Amino acid sequence: MDGIIPEQDYKERYIASEERFRTIFSLTSAATKIIDESLTIIKVNKALTDLLGYGEQEICGKKILDFACAEYIDSWKALQYKMWSGGEPFFRLDACLKNKNGALVWVHVTTIIFSDGDKRFAYTVLDDFTYMKSFHESEKRLNMSLQYSRMAVFDMDTLDGNLTYSEGLREILGLAENEIRLDRGTLLDCFIPDDKVELEGLLTALSSNSSLEFTGRVNTPNGELKWVHLQGRLDDLGISPRLLATAQDITKEKKAERYKDDFISIASHELRTPMTILSGTLQLLERNKPAELPRVSGLIGQANKSMRKINTLIEDLLHASKMSEGQLHLHKTAFNISRAVEECCADIDTKGFHKIIFEGDNNLELFADPERIQQVLINFVGNAIKYAPDQENIKIKAVEDVISISVSDSGPGIDADKVGHLFDRYYRVDSDGSQYSGIGLGLYISAEIIKKHGGKIGVSSELGKGSEFWFSLPKTLPEEIEQG
Ligand code: ADP
Prior knowledge:
The chain has 15 helices and 17 strands. The protein is of the alpha+beta class. Strand 6 (151-157) and strand 7 form a beta hairpin. Helix 12 (370-387) runs antiparallel to helix 14. The N and C termini lie far apart (115 Å). The structure holds adenosine-5'-diphosphate (ADP).
């Protein structure tokens, strides 16, 4: 009887395999059902009742298409027909079902036909990918909204330089679709040499939780320059520190800014000549004002005062546009700071009330552009008078060890979250308020002057207590002063 299995053994093996199938069917986490030839569901597992939210009794006896969303019924039916009519042994499709709560459930469907005795059945696995589907859709929506705002996001591993990025990054960086994958090196290479060096420095200097703020120019395939703004933060919560950042194409904004600058520059240039003539005429009148006509003398005085204000405004506009084009040229020389303070403060209108007090070393020498440094001081002191009108004493301090000069007042102070913008072009804390006149250029110009000297500028301020505006310049050795 060698090689022949007794009938009793077959039976036992069959029962055992049936048992195994039943166990797998009920325990598998994939939603599963068995249907008969009339497509009626005859058996479901727990995963399927969980997926649809109906009990076993509510599902068995029905057809799966009773739970399908309308737009999938025809294609599903066609596949069923093909399989049952002997065309295919199985079929696959992605479809959408509606569960008991009315929520949509996305499933990968695999149905395979099998026979048991003389009857045919089909076994279906419904693999839920609703989570993936909504994830992909939200990713798609995010990509679309990023695209509309000409923005992209990226995540850079700062150790190996690998980059994960959203769809629009390549386009923003002016890269063609088929070019190599982006990483730290290729990202840097997109920028023109000067900007690349600056970005590389910023990326290397990133430390725990520090942030990145950078605007640079990239070359596009058609030879045009694009402006790209990168903004991000270093996150070192994971295994390796990652830079999470956004990239935005700001070319349009830069162009608009450029047109505005060009207009301001041309307009202030054109205004300058007639203003100089007008100014000269008014000064002449001031010198020869008729003593016998006090009203006329008063009017001449007022006209001169307004003329000085207009001149300052035009000078500020001209300086600001020159600086934005990087056209600030310094004429450095050695000079005594206390004398420079005295000289420039003599021109400041103290309204007969404010006292400008110089504290510090009277012999302190600076090697810088005296006219520009005086311009910064005039702006600081002018602001102290403007924004702290009730404060009599305005102090100017000069500290030798770092050559730091500050102007302090006990005026209204500045909100901490606005301080970071004070040196931006056209920024005004109270931009809507009409209490104080101004156009928000003084501190921007001051910052550009100090930056050009290689120095630092800042403010410490407390709301309601006052402000101290300061700048510091790199210390120059006496022999350099002599050479200068
Ligand atoms: P402007 O005075 O023409 O507005 P600035 O660039 O000189 O332009 O100053 C920018 C802003 O900084 C001002 O609008 C003001 O809100 C704020 N500010 C400057 N100096 C002071 C100060 N001493 N106290 C309070 N706020 C100040």
